[in-house]
Amino acid sequence: MSRRAAISKRSTIIDVADLAGVSIKTVSRALNDAPHVNAETRKRIKDAAAALDYHPNIAAQSLIARRSYLIGLTYERPSPSYVVELQNGALARLENSRYRLVVLPFRDVANRPTELGSLLLRAGLDGVILAPPACDQHELLSMLDRQKLPYARITPHREMDRGIVTVIDDIEAGRAIARHLLELGHRRIGIVMGDPSHAASAARMKGYRLAFVDFDAELNDELIASGDFTYDVGYASAAKLLHQSPRPTAILAQNDDMAVAAMAAVRDLGLSVPGDVSVAGFDNSEVSRTTWPQLTTVRQPVNEMAWDAVDRLIAMLDANSGEQASPPLRGDHPYELIVRASTAAPR
Asked: What is the pTM of this model?
């Protein structure tokens, strides 16, 4: 009976401290990877925890520290592949961490910023990751600042000095993909815009315009169609462009879902990609690699930016509790032009 009791008894932090020969506070600091614990002691404590199969009780830690150890992630109706990359990056950073992820999708952020703010504040979060377009909502940021809820912003384009930011250069990325089409010889290029509430849409458009200036070429505003980052609207916008006479020799869509929709619209008219119309996208999402022909696009490192945003936010939270130094508030990430078979010189 005593042996069974010993096996079934859940190990505690006191057991770990006794086995490692240190204080409970030192065990806590070592297992939370806090500073001021030397490498030898940290290893001894972690070895003791492993030997005892000790796992910290997050609920108990929350009560003691008066923290929830919950990190929120909010986004608005992006493409499914973008959501997957966003969540995978955040979850990868939180693996083996005391923090847990709470996913809070929210629609129509631009018109309801205070409603989103209320939702985030009611959720009992220690901090929140703001994906577009929430990352650029002034009213929301001010509300979170007033209530002292720490936040990290993924690819913001406004008020860059507020909170933690992880970014790519959307203007130069847009310029690079447009230059690729211009270098191939395309001049009549149709553009399918993204959601206007996302600041990245305007930034990428600015990049396209700079590329046309680089080539001393004229960008025809009649070839710019509205979109919203979804497949259905991307298809309708591309079809409208393709019915113009003369039709565009290339279509540049502001994300991969709309680009794949444009490829479908081209084929539905009995045309070929890239023989009759080249198509390029943005994101390097999974669909860009599984469609045929594979899609020329710009790699936006969503996974890495989400990982970085969570990492910096956790560092900020731990700094606020005195566990470590404050992190840098900005992380810049590179984009990459990826040329595949969906683009070629015009006939």
From this structure: 0.81
